[in-house]
Amino acid sequence: MTTRQTTAPSGLAVGVTVAAAIILIIGGICHAMQGVVGIATNEFYVTTQKWIFQFDVTTWGWIHVIVGAIAVLAGIGLFSGAVWARTLAVAIAAVSILVNFAWLPYYPIWSVLIIAFDFFVIWALTAHGRDVVAVSGR
């Protein structure tokens, strides 16, 4: 009979994972706010250059609202330590990176900032996500 040896979770790892959850929630709220602005006023965002991915700003608005809502739900789910929440959070952060890359012509500095946050979220959840599960007891 083999016994599974468990070690105490690292406080730093749990802190990094909780920070990733908070950043994901804040990023999701910001995505949704960007989307609402894009839906409400088409003239707010102006394209800086001609890029391959050009949609109507209203379309981008709906994309941002949907990605933002899913990111907020995944971020809230991360506090429970559920595996589905970690999986969904990594997937939605990856989608957010793609969306913000395509959104670069409209709001370049903001897009680069959110891309960096999303990379942090993916790193934190893939490297330290199991520690939250150990703390929550699931």
Report on this model:
The chain has 138 residues and is mostly helical. The chain is built from 4 helices and no strands.
Outline of this structure?
Helices cover 73% and strands 0% of the residues. It is an all-alpha fold.
Keyword list:
elongated, mainly alpha, single chain, DUF7144 domain-containing protein, about 140 residues
pLDDT < 50 runs, ≥5 residues: none
Question: What fraction, in percent, of the residue positions are helical?
Answer: over 70%
Largest sheet: none
Strand content: under 5%
H and E string? HHHH
Number of helices: 4
Task: Characterize the overall form.
Answer: elongated
What is the alpha-carbon Rg in Å?
A: 17 Å
Number of strands: 0
Distance between the termini: 23 Å
What would you call the structural class?
mainly alpha
Instruction: Write down the overall mean pLDDT.
Output: 81
Query: What's the number of structural domains?
Result: 1
Give the secondary structure arrangement, pairings included.
Elements: H1 11-40, H2 57-78, H3 83-102, H4 108-136
